[in-house]
Amino acid sequence: MGDIIIGYDAKRAFRNRTGLGNYSRMIIGEMLRSHPDVWVVLFSPSIEGDYYHYFDGLVKVEVRRPSGLWRYIPWLWRTVGFSRKLAHSHIVLYHGLSNELPLKVPVGMKQVVTIHDLAALQFPRQFNAFDRAVHRFKQRYACQKADVVVAVSEQTRRDVVELLHVPEERTRVVYQSCDPIFWHPATEEAVARVRERYALPSRYVICVGTIEERKNQIAVVQAMRQLPEDIGLVIVGRERGRYAAKVRREIARCGLTERVRLLTAARFEDFPALYAGAMASVYMSRFEGFGIPVLESFCCDVPVVTSSCSSMPEVGGEAALYADPDDVEGIAAHLRRLASDEEFRHSVVERGRQQRQRFTPSAIAGEMYNLYRELLGKGQTIN
């Protein structure tokens, strides 16, 4: 079989530091590193950002940006403006990596879209009216036009089928991995530097995720009251909406002001060491398309307490400890045992090491590559 040329929506690969950006970089980078028969064309309205040099050194990759008047309306170029570039390329498959596809794609070009979650449909109050309408339109359109809708979990696949009425046979589950930075163990020196940089306690529980109602950090704060006083809580994530203020009030109400640290602007490169220095990781979200902090924790050899609902059991498997997101007593009981039983804690860490092997970047990219080849068939490849 010959080489294939794949077009990718790369806006978030260059500019986004969180989930969608990490996913985009992982798929593109690992596809190039692991599959020498793949050529990649990246479409992005700008390559200025934290990851400007991310793809340097990789061969068989080309970046295309808007020119002329399109430079002043990049959002429109990304939606319809680069269709001419697609038409005059040898691209045989276009993959929208973050919930959307362009409105116009040349006839015969295969289309794949990754849907990460349908939060705008399921939790509409957490989005303003404009963002909610945009998310809904883009996701509905993409799922209608795509030859294959990739869901990052069985939970998301069920949501796509039930809420967007996509035929099950046009969906495929391909799990995601996490950023390569987490697959390299943090050194003791790095952990010590991060502990000093952020003034962290010697023993702490870490809770990573955007501070918003869906992530349910208040339940974690309440559980901390039942833990020994020498154990702190470090909440790492950007603030969204008014929920962060509620979290701060709950911290004060529970008398935990001295034991809780909110890191709303932590450097991403510090995340592995932040995890590695923790006694445990807790992630009690009510709903996730995948639940990537669970996997990040496994990669950093940290035991995980997480929600028994949504996609978290898919990621955690038999390695995580589970509780209902509203069961403060259950959350606290898991954390107390991890804090007091070192042998048990080590056994949970070991299970996490085994579970994370299901989600290595090479394994995920391999599944996606097989999907591309299956979709294209022998007649769609080029030499």
Walk me through the structure.
- With 383 residues, the protein is α/β, with parallel strands linked by helices.
- It folds into two domains: 4-177 and 360-380, Glycogen Phosphorylase B (Rossmann fold); 181-357, Rossmann fold, CATH 3.40.50.
- 41% of the residues lie in helices and 16% in strands.
- It contains 16 helices and 13 strands.
- It has a seven-stranded parallel beta sheet, sandwiched between helices. Strands 10-9-8-11-12-13 form a six-stranded parallel beta sheet, with helices on both faces.
Task: List the topology elements.
Blueprint: E1 4-9, H1 11-15, H2 19-34, E2 38-43, E3 61-64, H3 74-81, H4 83-87, E4 93-96, E5 110-115, H5 119-122, H6 129-145, E6 148-151, H7 154-163, E7 171-173, H8 188-197, E8 203-208, H9 217-224, E9 231-236, H10 243-253, E10 260-263, H11 271-276, E11 280-283, H12 292-299, E12 304-307, H13 312-316, E13 321-323, H14 328-340, H15 342-355, H16 361-376
Parallel strand pairs: 1-2, 1-4, 2-3, 4-5, 5-6, 6-7, 8-9, 8-11, 9-10, 11-12, 12-13
| CATH fold call of the largest domain | Rossmann fold
Order of helices and strands: EHHEEHHEEHHEHEHEHEHEHEHEHEHHH
How many structural domains in the coordinates?
Answer: 2
Q: What would the average pLDDT be, to the nearest integer?
A: 92
Sum up the overall morphology in one term: globular
CATH class of the largest domain: Alpha Beta
CATH architecture of the largest domain: 3-Layer(aba) Sandwich
Estimate the helix proportion, in percent. Answer: 40-55%
CATH superfamily of the largest domain: Glycogen Phosphorylase B
How many E-type strands?
Answer: 13
Order of strands, main sheet, comes to: 3-2-1-4-5-6-7
Largest sheet: 7 strands, parallel
Low-confidence stretches: 378-383
Q: Whole-Å distance between the termini?
A: 8 Å
Number of helices: 16
